[in-house]
Amino acid sequence: MANSANSVAVGTKRVSRSAAVKKITIEIGRPIITIFIALLIGGVIILLMGEDPIFAYGMLFKGAFKGLGNIIATLQNTTPLLYTGLAVSLAFRSNVVNIGVEGQMLFGALAAGIVGYYVHLPWFLHLPLAIIAAGLAGALWAYIPAIMKAKLNVNEMVVCLMLNPIAQLITSYISSYPLKAPGPTNKTYDIMLTARLPQFSKSSQFNAGFFIALALLLIFWYVNNHTKKGYEWELIGQNPSFARYGGINVEKSIVEVFLVSGMIGGLAGAEQALGVYGAFYNGFSPGYGFDGIAVAMLAKFNPLAVSLSALLLGALNSGSIVMQMMTSVTRDLVKVLQAIIVLLLAADFTLEMFRKKRKADETLKKRPKTESEKL
Amino acid sequence: MNDILTLDLITTIIRISTPLAFAALGGLLTFKAGILNIAMDGFMLMAAFVGVGTAYFTGNLYISVVAAVLSSMILSALFGYFNLKFKANIFIAGTAIGILASGLTAVLLKGVFGQMGVFTAGKVLRFPQYNIPIIKDIPVLRELFSGYTILVYMAYILTPVVSFVLYRTKWGLRVRAVGESPDAAASLGINVFSIKMQTVILSGFFCGLAGAYLSLDYVSLFSRDMTGDRGLIALAAIFFAKGDPVRTVAVTLLFGTAQGLSVRMQLTAGVAPQIMQIIPYFVTMLALIIVGVQAKRKHFNIEATTAR
């Protein structure tokens, strides 16, 4: 096993420099072009509504980045996307299509809310315990599709699809009936101050969860690129039969990936409950779990790149508030942009459009040996 | 319990289940062709919006239904093209179409009609209610089967039609062949892409009717994200009934009952609405587990016999 890992790694290093540069340009180029096309289509929509796209986008940019207050608000909007983007990235990289991050986050937030109120401990124990509880809750909820895929070969996407509304309804029920705090809103009791993630500004709910997220990105970048586990997780995504041949227990790895992805989804809930709201509020998420799909796809499932793509969508979310105030274009435009980005990135344009051309090119000139042939 | 189970509850259930039945009919066509259509909520939402918008500008319900259906079919064609031609993962493309419809309708709601949450089409237009001859004179049957609008009748009349088309026509045979084994179908000269695309656009047609029914008949308004996971519930019904049209529509009636009861039981018995609302997803999960276990057992049996 270790042997095959080494030989593949050597193979990648042998790719010539110009090819590497070309590869990087394509890797970065496509997301940038995609964002540009999305903004262009969004601009046409703004134009059709009788507004000036440049003014509207200008307001969006100002709202996201002008002044310290706006920048901090942008970072606050970015934080949940760092978690959900990482959760989706880890899963998709292994071809485990965890579209259940939304549900995992809801259970994480609820667990954090429960431990944060009902347990009484000094802060250095209480806060970590609440965070761990959230991670565990997310992982447990992710265990359902994991075990169904691994043991029964049931499509994990269908399971996640059904589990999301189930999670939403269960958490909604718990926060509206048995554990509801008195008052008009459906929420749990306020979390003890000993379990709160520290906030850094008076004007926003920007909190320490941001830095935990950054640390997680670094950790999983390291795991992905420098550990055997990370290599196995990548291999089961790229070529499950090769992975199996190489001695990897694919079913076990799928469960592992699901658990880790679900745990991070749960931590996203912890950040929201312990850092932003201070309780579990029914319906607090505007769909961060689904936003994670766009974040992950823009980042090409690379944990470090998740920081940039989460920042981009976080800035759009945050800046769109100002755009909505100054123009008749509502914040929902960001949803449209996001959907276009995901559609364009999910599509494999080269396959259809350039297949013929590429084939012709390949037969004309002698192509250099591919990685697999070198092995 | 007496005040819960009344005749007018059954009328409510039939009306509540109509959009589910429409969507399920569309969804099962794609299901039979091997496509899991999770974009149905998006199709419906778009149709609901275009329906109300057209009614506002034209004042004609039937033109509005046609416009709604067309908008839904265009969106479904986009979905089909991205999935089938550009090989986008169906779940990702479907989620994206859902978000696109949700965002676009909300943006246009403000941009075109200046509303943030809810929009009514000026003076409220209503579909006439039809009474079926003979049945309208028989007491209980009258309440159960008579006095609905044309769209309600359409949903339940189209059910056997879809069943007939799927199981008794050449086209239906091709759809099922494509769904069961695309490679084998292709080797027989069936254009797999074109058959799949046809089912996706037909699902757009049915979801268009569902959306038009929601915003022009069931209620006379458009509100943000008004489909409320109905597409997902329809998909759950398809899974639960394994895609048989008549059974699927019967299951949508069951799921519609759960929805209808969720409001009533909260008012009369104080039962939390979430408990009833969770039923469609919950029983579908159970069905998935049972099917998975059965398949696994069958697999083991085959392995055992071949080993011998």
Write structural notes for this entry.
Chain A has one domain (2-374): ABC transporter involved in vitamin B12 uptake, BtuC. Helix content of chain A is 76%, strand content 0%. Chain A is built from 17 helices and no strands. Chain B is mainly α. Chain B has one domain (7-228). Helices cover 76% and strands 3% of the residues of chain B. Chain B has 13 helices and four strands. Chain B has a two-stranded antiparallel ribbon. Chain B has a two-stranded antiparallel ribbon with strand order 2-3. Classes of the chains: A mainly alpha (375), B mainly alpha (308). At the A-B interface, helix 6, helix 7, helix 12, helix 14 and helix 15 of A face helix 4, helix 10, helix 12 and helix 13 of B.
Strand content of chain A is under 5%
Structural domains of chain A: how many:
1
Shape of chain A: globular
What best-fitting shape of chain B do the alpha-carbon axes yield? globular
Q: Profile the largest sheet of chain A.
A: none
Query: What is the CA-atom radius of gyration of chain A, in angstroms?
Result: 22 Å
CATH fold-level label of chain A: ABC transporter involved in vitamin B12 uptake, BtuC
Total of DSSP H or I helical runs spanning 4+ residues of chain B: 13
Report the top-level CATH class of chain A: Mainly Alpha
Average pLDDT level of chain B: 90
- Domain tally of chain B: 1
* Helix content, binned percent of chain A: over 70%
Low confidence ranges of chain A? 1-13, 351-357, 363-375
Assembly state of the chains shown:
heterodimer
From the alpha-carbon coordinates, what is the Rg of chain B to the nearest angstrom? 21 Å
Helix-strand makeup class of chain B: mainly alpha
Distance between the termini of chain A: 15 Å
User: Could you give a short account of the major beta sheet of chain B?
Assistant: 2 strands, antiparallel
Strand tally of chain B, please? 4
